């Protein structure tokens, strides 16, 4: 990916944050012929260690979402094949499965929301082909291709005529449009009050996740308290959901509970 080394450059848009949302926005703008820069300090972010699931059917059933929410997530999934082909992201649209717990209730929710599924009451399993998946490391690398990446921390953003001037730890960059993709990080200095208020509404969610070298499953398998998904040549085991928690220190008790739930789920045959 091109690296930023000019004292000050101008772009059509500058994106702050190189996670999945930031890179997707930047890649889409690049596909539309815009000159885009992405500002990010580098290192591992939450997107890089996520499971990469695009799962409207399972997520809507698990979280008991409304029909309106399901329609939005289904539409988002339907946009992925063309976007993945255009950006080089490998998209997997294979089987997703739920084992154990109140499978009948989840099956009823899927049916009510209009998702295709198969429910086997005897084995307590629910499967669907409506969900998809990416491998985050490959996807993030593909999305960044062709983008100008400024490996720095954004310090301040201020209006500059009809656009924005963003000061970073390696210099300044100007753009007609500014896109914030910084998750639950504190608001960038210099933003207008409306933007600061919007950023303040974002709630952090800590998720603890594990990686295994072995390929434990050949498709996404979920159950009460855990999921296991293929990731490259290995597997990813996850994940805790702790709203409001900003700590990045692993919680051994929660991790042990998650792993126990995963092994119990995988033991069901």
Q: What is this structure's SSE topology?
A:
Blueprint: E1 8-16, H1 20-31, E2 36-40, E3 53-54, H2 56-63, H3 67-87, E4 91-92, E5 96-99, H4 103-113, E6 118-120, E7 125-128, E8 132-134, H5 136-144, E9 148-151, E10 154-160, E11 163-168, E12 171-180, H6 193-200, E13 205-206, E14 210-212, E15 220-223, E16 226-231, E17 234-238, E18 242-243, H7 252-267
Parallel strand pairs: 1-2, 1-12, 2-9, 5-15
Antiparallel strand pairs: 3-8, 4-8, 5-7, 6-7, 10-11, 11-12, 13-18, 14-17, 15-16, 16-17
Helix pairs in contact: 1-5, 2-4
Can you characterise this structure?
By secondary structure, the chain is an alpha+beta fold. 32% of the residues lie in helices and 30% in strands. A hairpin with a 4-residue loop joins strand 6 and strand 7. It is elongated.
Let me know the number of strands.
Answer: 18
Distance between the termini: 45 Å
Broad structural category: alpha+beta
- The share of residues in helices is 25-40%
